[in-house]
Write a structure and sequence with these properties.
about 260 residues, wnt signaling pathway, mainly alpha, extended
């Protein structure tokens, strides 16, 4: 074998090992986040009567919805922790550039994590969370055989109709806002134009909802904190309190 072919084979083998290492690290990180989110959701969710029945159809639906919600929460938590993880990994690499055991914290791993978080966040936002909601509310079409698959069919149809409705609204909004004739005539640019536009609209709606709910959340937080904390009594006048106590004692004594 020629030296050039040996070098190319060594490079391909190294890339393969790096890819396998990145996949294992991503799987371990997501598994850890999934387990943590499962404990968080099971701690705060409402315990229903059918969760204890293992053969009941509603219990199976509840477990599937719980898994989808746990997956979505794990993706959201990973998106929140991704920026601090990137900063910390960069600082560790700059502090220990020659350490062999931390070389897996490279730019390829961070780039792969960003791509996975972006993909799974879009999938959770557009498909998984609506599917979980409609799946828990579904009962199957009228006249069809009852079961899990009937609920899956109904949920899929409702989700498809909702997707068509949202895409139609986005198409109408883009036709109203845009001035070109192409935006009014066809939907050929669905992947390159309408899906990013839809993602921007959903992000804008989320930001507006955050701005609307943040003041109420802060006011509730300060109210609860004020009830839990004991107010300091450093500025109170003790002589005035003693005088008030003497007056109250005298009034009680006269009544007696």
């Amino acid at each position: 074998m020629a030296p050039v072919e040996q070098d190319a084979l060594a490079v391909r083998e190294q890339l393969f090992h790096e890819r396998v290492r990145e996949c294992i690290i991503c799987a371990l990180l997501f598994a850890s986040l999934y387990i943590l989110c499962h404990f968080i959701i099971t701690q705060f969710k409402k315990h229903t009567d059918f969760t204890a029945v293992h053969d009941d159809e509603d219990a199976v639906v509840n477990r599937i919805a719980l898994g989808l919600c746990t997956f979505t929460l794990a993706v959201a938590l990973g998106a929140v922790l991704l920026l601090p993880f990137s900063i910390i990994s960069n600082e560790v690499l700059l502090s220990f550039p020659q350490n062999y055991y931390i070389q897996w914290l490279n730019g390829s791993l961070i780039h792969g994590l960003w791509n996975l978080v972006f993909l799974f966040s879009n999938m959770s936002l557009v498909f998984l969370m609506p599917f979980a909601y409609f799946f828990t509310e579904s009962e199957g079409f009228a006249g069809s055989k009852k079961g899990i698959m009937a609920r899956v069919y109904e949920t899929s149809v409702v989700l498809l109709l909702l997707t068509l409705l949202v895409l139609g609204m986005v198409w109408v909004a883009s036709a109203i806002v845009g001035n070109d004739a192409a935006s009014r005539q066809s939907l050929y640019d669905l992947w390159e134009y309408y899906l990013p536009y839809l993602y921007s609209c959903i992000s804008l709606f989320g930001v507006l909802l955050l701005l609307l709910c943040t003041p109420f959340g802060l006011s509730t937080m300060f109210t609860v904190t004020g009830k839990l904390l004991v107010k300091p009594r450093l500025l109170e006048d003790l002589d005035e309190q003693l005088s008030c106590t003497r007056f109250e004692e005298a009034a009680v004594s006269r009544r007696i």
